[in-house]
Amino acid sequence: MSVIGAGGGYQTIRQLDLVALSGNHAGMGDESAEVRDVLAFLQSTEPFASLDDDHRRVVAKGIEVAYFRRGTVITDAGDANDWLSLIRSGAVELMLGGTQLSARLGERDCFGYPSLIRRGPAQNTATAIEDCLLYRLPGATFHVLRERCADFRKFFDIDESARLRRAVARMEGDGPVAGDESGLAIYATIGSFLSGRPVVSGDPALSVGETAALMAREDVSTLPLCEDGRLLGIVTDKDLRRRVLAVQLDLATPVRAIMTTDPITIGLNDTAMTALLEMTRRHIHHLPVIDASGALVAVISASDVLGQLGAHSLRIPAEIERSASAQELATATARLPDAVSALVSAGVDASHVTHYASAIGGAAHCRLLELAQAELGPPPVPFALVCFGSLARYEQGLGSDQDNGFVLGEGYDEARHNSYFAALAKRLSDGLAAAGYAYCKGDIMATNPDCRRDLAGWQSRFGHWIATPDPQAVLDSAIFFDMRPLAGEEELVKQLREGVFAQARDNRIFLSFMARAAASTAVPLGFFRNFLLHHDADEGDVLDLKRQAIAPIVDIARCHALARAIPATGTLERLDAGAAAGGLHPEAARDLAAGFEFLCDVRFRHQAGQRARGEPLSNLLPPRELSRFDREHLRDAFRLIRGQLDKLRSDFAGGLT
Q: Distances from the Cα of 440 to the Cαs of 50, 360, 552, in angstroms?
């Protein structure tokens, strides 16, 4: 045993026999107890677990076991480094350039590999912040393993974003859980489960009466209308009831006058999951299917999709639509957690799950509004129901609260009309609360007069935020810049959004405030073991997946959308559009998108686990729930987010082109 270093802070406990990788392995089964202990540790630690037995034995026999007391500098930034260090016990802090926190590492974490790969000096100062026992592999052995073992090489890719993209690809590539028939069905293409029966269609020149007779004769409730094989429109039983019988329309009227033009369609190679999302989001029960040439080949129904995905998936929107009261609607939405858990278990990617949950949330808003209007009577002036935040971005998870408001149209007079809209808002908000969407703690609900304004009032409010920004106002107003109409006069919302985004794009001071607010997020770069940056009074030390991980990426995407008046509301769409507009580097957009999908997947898996255990749903993740895979890639995500937040603040402070 030898002691090296000032003050005796570093001890080499034992240098095990190094066997050349190209040498004879005879007798390697006769390991000492010490080598067997190292082997057992390596077999449960990535990336060494991916090595074959011979290479793992070589690592075990070539390792130096070293002890560092708390406070000892293991490697200084700028020093030469010839070791890959694996933490057997204890904790290490990495400071970039010796001054800026880069990471805190715990048991089974590795460090030192970036300088080995670059064959240059260490960029980080590595310090033992607890007494540490390290396994240290010589650089020469590390390089040979990288050359010979693909998985080992990939693990030590310098670029954290590349590892994140591989993590997302791995999750998506795994597809459905083995033995889960619903998962297999989710990925089935539309073409794979078409019945093969001839499609029934009509001509737009038919009269309404002839169309009704054709639908009765063929026993179909939905009729596509085509010319020369091209789909021009669609008519349903509901159209005949509402647009013909209810208004006593002449039956000789051409059906072209009442058909829905440019109907939503789906392709043969689209999946059952895509069909589910379209039907849920659009509140429809039939989808025309077209081939690659655009020709109509079939019409699939909700029952067709139900046959593939199981009754839980489309039952919820159907029950919401049929609900005759807020209580019936609450019964329908109570099934949502189980439906989402089933999708997560089936391996559906997070972006599809958030779209599904958001479509259910939007449908609940719309039906409750209809029920309230049926009770109160028609509105005295035109208006639009809008949502904000995650629902507006199609990124709603489980346990979300409600964020909504009214944009009131021309002719609104507060003295005459406010009582109607206040009553409408109360019925809507109470119904949503009963349906599982909690009252907003920040009071961003139509029940709040500040969220119930005419167009001019909303324009004035946004104009004030943009023209005279201050840090707190920017934080409070950010959610309002994610706005989407759910029901009513969409043109009101379109006018509002166009004006707001034009103002924001042209005000660099406001944009710099938005960027600084985003960059102030406490991203847990020091995330390791049980040490996290968020303390919850009930949960203890936890990771807040929404606030600390997902929200910063949302903020980055929002800033780029506002800076270039990008109309998209979804985070992934904003990242793509920001890259296309030149404000965000394409690789950065791709990396952030991968990080976002990974984090959303972790959140859904966490909430599915809570649901299975009968626990309240939350975004707070205790460290004990994390797998080794998730821990590694969460750390990659945090580093990526922190770097992009710093760049955002720098770019916006310096002006944008």
A: 47, 18, 21
103-113 pLDDT per residue, tens: 778 888 889 99
φ and ψ at residue 389, rounded to 5 degrees: 70, -140
Q: How far is CA 36 from CA 42, 48, 547, in A?
A: 10, 14, 43
Spatial CB neighbours of 554, under 8 Å, sequence gap ≥ 6? 393, 395, 482, 571
Q: What's the distance, Cα to Cα, between the start and end of the chain in Å?
A: 62
Distance of CA 435 to the CA centre of its chain: 23
**Angle formed at CA 213 by CA 211 and CA 216, multiple of 5 degrees:** 110
- Contact by Cβ (8 Å): 308, 279: no
Neighbours of 274 (CB within 10 A): 19
| Rounded Cα distance, 72 and 56, in Å | 29
Bond prior to 524 in cis (omega within 30° of 0): no
Nearest one of 309, 214, 219, 204 to 260, comparing CA atoms: 204
- Residue 276, classed as helix, strand or coil, is helix
- Dig out the tokens for 274 from the structure: 């895509």
Taking only the tens place, the pLDDT of each residue in 394-453 is: 999 888 899 999 999 999 999 999 999 999 999 999 999 999 999 999 999 999 999 999
If one counts every other C-beta atom within 10 angstroms of the C-beta of residue 583, the result is: 19
What are the tens digits of pLDDT across the range 253-265? Answer: 999 999 998 888 9
Residue-level pLDDT at 650: 87
SS3 readout for 624-650: HHCCHHHHHHHHHHHHHHHHHHHHHHH
Q: Per the structure block, which two tokens stand in for 6?
A: 């000032």
Burial class (CB in 10 A: 0-12, 13-18, 19+), 233: buried
Query: Residue 167's closest CA among 631, 641, 644, 639?
Result: 631
| Radius of gyration of the chain measured on its C-alpha atoms | 30
Give the tokens for residue 379.
């509105």
Q: Which of 315-319, 471-475, 488-492 is most confident?
A: 488-492
326-333 and 350-376 helices cross at what angle (nearest 10)?
170
Tokens 């964020």 sit on residue: 403
Q: Tokens representing 63?
A: 């390792």
pLDDT at 177 > cutoff 70: no
Task: Look up residue 533 and give its DSSP letter.
Answer: S
pLDDT of 20 > 80? The answer is no
